[in-house]
Fold this sequence. Notes:
CATH class of the largest domain: Alpha Beta
Number of domains: 2
Radius of gyration: 19 Å
Number of helices: 12
Low-confidence stretches: none
Strand content: 5-15%
Order of helices and strands: HEHEHEHEHEHEHEHEHHEHH
Distance between the termini: 25 Å
Strand order of the largest sheet: 7-6-5-8-9
Bound molecules: phosphoric acid mono(formamide)ester
Number of strands: 9
Structural class: alpha/beta
Mean pLDDT: 95
Amino acid sequence: MKTTGYHFQQKHILGIHHLSPDDIAFILRTADSFKEISTRTIKKVPTLRGRTIVNLFFEPSTRTRLSFEIAAKRMSADTFNVTASTSSATKGETLIDTARNIAAMKPDIIILRHSFSGAPELLTRYIDAAVINAGDGTHEHPSQSLLDMMTVQEHKGRLAGLKIAIIGDILHSRVAHSNILGFTRMGARVFVYGPATLIPRDLAELGATVCASLAEAVTEADVVMTLRIQKERQSDPLLPSLREYAQKYGVTRKVMDWARPDAIVMHPGPINRGVELMADVADGPRSVILDQVTNGVAVRMALLYLVMGNS
Length: 311
Ligand code: CP
């Protein structure tokens, strides 16, 4: 990893696809340096004082929206939230018109979550503000992947050489897509397993190994990551019933016995307890799910700081 002559040059954070291993390592180091701020009694630094940050969320979110807002406020930025249900999108205004009108108020950063894959990239063509992708359709969720990598690095001391098992609905998961790109880019080996109808065909091109069984994916894994089964897609013929899904793809303590003894369990949230992940595993000693959430604030502080440095 280069340590001299490196300069973070990304104006926007649109996806892990756009980040080099040096970029990822630098973001993780920057996040690590910001993490301590959240442990102080007075959790505030002046780094982004006078900056204006708009959270523009067209899909529901608890963790991502709140942690971007907490990150911005801990760095003294002014933050504003716009959600689909309270915006003029309900009156038929297009995303581009909404973004142009928000841009006319001169924000420095727009953080966008949208159901349309590619929406954040589209926005960059119409506005001057830095754009951070907070999840776009089934495409990417870069800040989630970065906080996942930070969490694994904290618990394992490295990313290179680790076996990462990702279990579940890979097809619809922007988290899986970003994590396959991110972990393989950092030298980890990613193994995926899920219903055959929910495994995209291009996974090998992304560097992941598609497994024929849950045991193959989890055996000797250092990290077992389960994904949310998207209940809103239950009418989708691609999915078995929730009960059948839990039996075939749910991560139980018995499944975790196949993994390495020091393996950790991750989930991006929100969890469907008893479906993709059993409660005793989610709350058990191997679970680092709440560490992921804590690291989400640090990673998002780093992203806000770094894109401001390049605006
Ligand atoms: N992991 C994640 O994106 O969670 P939210 O939908 O609550 O933001």
